[in-house]
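Known limitations

Files may contain more than one protein. Parsers should not assume a single record per file. Below, a two-record file is shown to illustrate correct handling: read the sequence, read the token line, then continue until end of file.
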Amino acid sequence: MKKGIVPCVLSVVFFFVGVFSCSAADVIKLKAANYLPTTHKMSLLTERFCQEIKKRTNGRVEITYYPGGTLLSPVKMFNGITTGIADIGVSHIQYTRGRFPVTEVFDLPLGFPSGWVATHVSSDFYDKFKPTEWDGVHMLYINTSGPLILQTISKPVRTLADLKGLKIRGAGRMTETLKALGAVPMPLEMPDVYEALRRAVLDGIMVDLSTLKYWKFAEVVNYVTPTWQLGTGITFYCVMNKNKWNALPADIQKIFTETAADAKEWQAALWNEMDIDGRDVFKAKGGQIIPLSEAEAAKWIKAVDPVIGTYKKEMVSQGFKAADVDKWIDFIKGRIAYWKAEELQRKIPTPF
């Protein structure tokens, strides 16, 4: 009996070893990259997305997360995803001007009042128009920041005339808006901006309020002019390598889709939260906020109006129809009105 038990026990052991070995081999391993600092709330959100995928797939998918530009820089992110350096990546379209011409409509001063509203509008826009510029990847979710505001280190900007000649950081199509306002655009990558501000290589930056805390700009700028009336945002993407997406089993794809939809909602709420955080940190450090009067804001809006016309001409020169561009802008403005009303009805806190 004892001699018979040993082979039996060994057989059971080898059976389970084989099962577990097979299970380990079947785990789908992916890499996700993000250029944002490790402790930035958007970086933590991406990490949460990775963890949620593992949890919801019961460990069938494991995503190794590389934040802080450790795998891909923001400029190289999109190409890095298409070539397989990373399987999932987060960056924004202003780093690669011309690569996403249709989506660059969100770089225009169209009056986005908050990141919560802008994120829902950009998501609606993508779902409706499905720009072919994204065909090389699988879109997980798209989102747009709160309105960009002016931050300066030594010169308070109270009027449009005060901005003339100042060296202001701006990337992508934002450079055209800055030129229209009379500033000198400086397209630095965000990881280089803090030091450029500290050394006064830049006079300021035009970016969302959240950066005052999460990029620590409140330590080096002294004045904020809330130019939210222009309503220009920065549109971010979280995309996946197309081949890796196509290779996923259908049930895993469904989990990715559901988790990405949740992540978009997390991000929408996070934009408003981070902008409020940035404003509060800046005020606590003694920074001065200089609101534009209604009359002065109207001057700024009028100054940047030609930027929209220039974009339209550029798109027509690329083979798009002027009527299509008008359709995009009309759709966006309609969705801004809808989601702004929703934001108010849902009593979602906003920074402005």
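...continuing to the second record:
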Amino acid sequence: MKRTVFRNLSLLALTLGFVLVSAAYGKDNETQFTGVIESLPNTAGFIGDWKVSGRTVHVTSTTRIEQEDGAVAVGATVKIEGTTRSDNSIDAQEIDVKEAAENENENETKFMGTIESLPAAPGFIGDWRVGGRTIHVSTTTKINTEEGPVAVGAFVEIEGTLRADGSMDASKIEVESNVNGNDGRDELNGVIESLPNTPGFIGDWKVSGRTVHVTAATIIDQENGPVVVGASVEVKGTSHPDGSIDATKIEIKKASSDTGGSPDEGQSAKVIGMIQSLPTSPNLVGDWMIDNRIVHVTSSTKLKAEHGAFALGTRVKAKGLKLADGSLVATKIQVAD
């Protein structure tokens, strides 16, 4: 009997020890680390091993790289979140450039030329040939196609960092000309006369007598006011023979002079609370319910999920413009700390 009790107590102690060690290890395995980039891999998207303040940082295609405060370059200060391996290296989940390298501008350049060849990968990620030069395009490269599509023969302006071999890591590419010439690309300035009663305003709008087809891919810029009947807008897109336009971008130029009787409609507003419902669309465009308030999410809404995924019960902060019915057109939603 005593032997059995002793054995059970020993097993309990071992189990508790294992749990405590596992918990400690799991906690220690997660890390946040700030340092200076000492070396980078010579690959598209900087995938591979980085050296940051003496530590090896493993970067993959799933690592989120934020470059709002500067470009990825040797000498830049970065904050890294990830998991630590037994050799003290880090598997990076997110890298945020906090301060640009002092010599960053020395290697930055602009280059204009005609696209000679393109990779077959989705999003044109890979090596382009432009004006006789190799251009490395990654998932972080911003590509602006307002003036025309990406295609062989199109004239583009490229911003990026030169490599020793004369190739460029592109941070931004802007199409300057439409290779197909006048293929129906159009611009319309007018006043919104009617809107669809759908999440994200997806559907057919009427702008100064013309039908404007809006999809989930349409960029809607509401910095100067909300999407409401009476607002002045600039529409860019492709026209059809019937005069209608497939909108690629709509920018509110002037808020409606008659906002429907709500004195604070179109004013900046904020909602902080739990997500109570979400749309079923893959990109979450549509109507959310946050803290008993309807929040309209469009294709131009910035969704920031650094601190967790968007899900029912998640606490979030939403900023945007208030509508007459009390709902909010969100310009930004982020998961609360």
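Parsers that stop after the first record will miss the second one. For reference, the second record is described as follows. Confidence is low (pLDDT under 50) at residues 14-27, 258-263.
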